[in-house]
Design goal:
Blueprint (H helix, E strand, L loop, with lengths): L1 H24 L2 H17 L6 H25 L1 H4 L17 H22 L2 H25 L3 H5 L1 H4 L1 H10 L4 H24 L1 H7 L4 H5 L1 H19 L10 H23 L3 H36 L1
């Protein structure tokens, strides 16, 4: 009996590990950002949506993001094996077969698009399908390995979710949803180039032409600074069109100033050790920065509803 109990325990552990491996294929940290920004788009869109349909829509967008992430990991398994930060992913570590990841990604992608179309509207579903295609094919299979501008153009895939969320409610796009897109789109290059600066060796070993490996550290730091200036300026546009109140304006100004200060310090860093330290700090801060911007928009929106 004790032997049988031990066998069941071992099987249970193996099964739970398998589930965890498949969950890892979805890139849960990236998915959480997609869910959050899509939710912001849905919440800020005029008209509102039934909570049940809204929940289904968010689930579909999450599954679409996870499906495209699985397709990304399937295609990138060869370079994931030589990069320290991706070496332990399910495919290069041998815990999931490439064919299984491919099937998993395709099933989730198709399921998410069809369900979203049936539950809400087919414009939003088509937008989600385009987002999945852009990330899995345009970015992963083409841009990532062919140009140092990979993250600039490919970053559009990560910027589409709030527009998809907006389309779920309205059936279309608008100036406001385009602004949400632009904020994420302009945030992506300084965010990932900061990572590339202190993970430069990984990208070089994998043969991925990230900007620091192709144009050099100095040019990359200048590009980070320039994109940061344009990003912060763009975050100050929403209040000009009535899309953000005093709270958002204050948060965007203060956090934007902090972002610019870090970008400037990175550009002026005199030594490689200091440069990598500030690059890591900018990368970490950029995550909080984007969350602050979108949380401020939500809070301003809720305050306006209470005031009304």
């Amino acid at each position: 009996m004790a032997y049988l109990d031990d066998s069941r325990d071992i099987a249970s552990v193996a099964t739970s590990g398998r589930v965890e491996d498949y969950f890892s294929l979805l890139k849960p940290r990236v998915m959480s950002l997609v869910i959050f920004t899509a939710f912001v788009g849905m919440l800020l869109a005029p008209g509102g949506i039934n909570p049940v349909l809204g929940t289904i829509a968010i689930l579909c967008i999450a599954l679409g993001a996870g499906g495209s992430a699985a397709l990304n990991m399937w295609y990138d398994a060869d370079i994931d094996r030589v990069m320290s930060r991706t070496l332990n992913r399910p495919i290069p570590s041998g815990r999931v077969e490439p064919s299984e990841a491919l099937s998993f990604g395709l099933i989730l992608s198709v399921l998410s698009v069809v369900t979203l179309g049936l539950a809400t509207n087919w414009f939003a579903a088509a937008f989600l399908a385009f987002t999945i295609f852009f990330y899995a094919v345009v970015y992963t299979m083409w841009l990532k390995r062919s140009t140092p501008q990979n993250i600039v153009i490919g970053g559009a895939a990560g910027a589409f979710p709030p527009m998809v969320g907006w389309a779920v409610v309205t059936g279309g796009v608008s100036i406001e949803s385009t602004l949400l897109f632009l904020i994420i789109f302009l945030w992506t290059p300084p965010h990932f180039w900061a990572l590339a600066l202190y993970k430069q060796g990984d990208y070089g070993a994998a043969g991925v032409p990230m900007l620091p490996n192709v144009a050099g550290e100095r040019a990359t730091r200048l590009q980070i600074l320039l994109y940061s200036v344009v990003l912060v300026a763009t975050t100050l546009v929403p209040p000009m069109i009535g899309f953000g109140g005093w709270l958002y304006t204050a948060v965007a100004a203060v956090s934007g100033a902090s972002f610019l200060l870090l970008a400037w310090r990175l550009y002026r860093a005199p030594a490689e050790v200091e440069m990598k330290r500030i690059a890591r700090k900018l990368f970490t801060f950029s995550l909080s920065y984007l969350a602050l911007i979108f949380l401020a928009l939500i809070t301003d929106h809720l305050l306006s509803l209470v005031g009304a």
